[in-house]
Write a structure and sequence with these properties.
The protein has 173 residues and is mainly α. It has a domain at 23-137. The chain is built from seven helices and two strands. Helix 2 packs antiparallel against helix 3. The protein is globular and about 50 Å long. The relative contact order is 0.16.
Length: 173
């Protein structure tokens, strides 16, 4: 099926109203943006870039996908062109965003306090994990979420079948 035929197919889930599920390619777009911005921060020494992407993650978590710039990039530009990908439970990627936002905003506080070495280490950690996820599809935050929830033993590991759980109430919504 070509991209035009795929794009003509109607969406199953509305990207802004059906928040308990997400197109599986949307988190990879978000992870790619986080990876690029944090790597740029590391390369340039501009700590405020890492702060901005941490703040953007927080805005998306608090106000929803309509205010998440990487989400808008995916849902408004990429998904209409290539079609909707497979749907997945949105709780695990949301939890991963909570972790990313917390670590990046924690790094911001450390930069403000003059502990730049530790701040850069945290930015480097986020850059490495976001890059890993963007390139391979293995999301460490998602894996941690599912492991803690007891929903899987090997979820998101390469070669393992995906764990699908019925969406329940979520404190990270």
């Amino acid at each position: 099926m070509n991209a035009i035929a795929t794009a003509a197919r109607p969406r199953i889930a509305h990207p802004y109203r059906d928040t308990m599920v997400i197109d599986a390619r949307a988190p990879r777009t978000n992870q790619s943006v986080v990876a690029l911005v944090t790597l740029a921060a590391l390369a340039t020494g501009w700590w405020w870039l890492a702060s901005l992407i941490g703040l953007q993650l927080l805005v998306g978590l608090v106000f929803g996908r309509r205010f998440c710039l990487p989400c808008l990039l995916y849902f408004e530009l990429l998904q209409p062109r290539f079609g909707e990908g497979p749907l997945e439970d949105s709780r695990a990627p949301r939890f991963a965003n909570v972790i990313g936002a917390t670590v990046l905003l924690g790094a911001t506080v450390l930069f403000a306090l003059g502990a730049s070495t530790v701040g850069w280490a945290l930015v480097g950690l986020v850059a490495a994990l976001a890059s890993l996820s963007a390139v391979t599809g293995f999301c460490t935050g998602c894996w941690m979420y599912r492991l803690v929830r007891g929903e899987c033993e090997t979820c998101d590991l390469p070669g393992a079948p995906p764990a699908v759980a019925a969406p329940q109430s979520d404190p990270f919504r």
